[in-house]
Structures are given as structure tokens and as C-alpha cells.
Amino acid sequence: GKKQPMEEKKRVVVFDDDKDLLDIYSFIFEEEGWEVHTSQSCDQVLEIVADLSPHLILMDNWIPNIGGMAATQLLKNDPQLQRIPVMYISANNEVAALSKKAGADGFIAKPFDFDQLMELSESLLNKQP
């Protein structure tokens, strides 16, 4: 796309305990011009998100210590942070149900297609009020 020089970079925070996968996420999003922050645990989820105020959050289902579902629910119960879209990620074939229960805004199953990931990311951004 055409970039305005002063345009704010889109920020994403990825919560996943798999270091190799975090490198892949960072690569994919940075290629698209995003600023990427990663965390291998979700214990400080509210502090991290409040601190960075990202445009999008990627949340893995299996993440220490409280897990992606509890972490997503914490975010969605926080009046300051609940507007930030959360994409729920799981290799579990119940990902749709898990995502819904967590209150996430969208979901993707692992293994995922890179283009699919970016498409979903962009569409979640555009849903924001």
C-alpha cells in the first residue's frame, strides 16, 4: 500500500510461549510494516497491553501461566483495554469455540497460512470503532 511518511506504525503484541513461532510472527508482521512486541507468558497481560497500547493482540491458547482464555477474559473485562481486538490462536480443533468463550474478536488455527493471518489482522483492525 501507499504509506504516508507520518503514518503511525500499527503495533501488535503476540503472546505465545514458542520462541520459534514468535520469530515467524515478528518476520511476517515486520514485512508488512508493523511494529511487533512479543511475550512468552501472559502473566503481565494487562500491564504489557496498557503499556504498549497495541492495535491488535495475538493470543495463543496454551501460554503460561494462566492460559490464553483467562488472559483474553482479563483484557475484555478491562474498560481501558477491551476495545483492542484479540485474535485467538490455537492448534486445537475447537479453536472457534475456545475463541468465543474467551471473548476474542477473531481466531486462526495453527498451522496457519501467512496471507490468511495478515488478512484477518487487517480485518480486525478495521472493525475497531
Helices and strands, in order, run as EHEHEHEHEH
- Main β-sheet description: 5 strands, parallel
Provide the gyration radius in Å.
14 Å
Strand order of the biggest β-sheet? 2-1-3-4-5
Head-to-tail CA distance between termini: 22 Å
Oligomer: single chain
Share of β-strand residues: 15-25%
Average pLDDT level = 93
- Shape estimate: globular
Number of helices: 5
How many strands in all? 5
Helicity level, as a percent range? 25-40%
Structural category = alpha/beta
Low-pLDDT runs: none
Write a concise synopsis of the structure shown:
The chain has five helices and five strands; from the N terminus they run βαβαβαβαβα. It has 129 residues and is of the alpha/beta class. The protein starts with 10 loop residues before the first strand and ends with a helix.
Write structural notes for this entry.
The protein is an alpha/beta fold and 129 residues long. The chain has 5 helices and 5 strands, in the order E-H-E-H-E-H-E-H-E-H. It has helices spanning 19-31, 45-52, 68-76, 95-102, 114-126, and strands spanning 11-15, 35-39, 56-60, 86-90, 106-109. It has a 5-stranded parallel beta sheet, with helices on both faces. Helix 3 (68-76) packs parallel to helix 4 (95-102). The longest helix is centred in the N-terminal third of the chain and has 13 residues, at 19-31. The two termini are 22 Å apart.
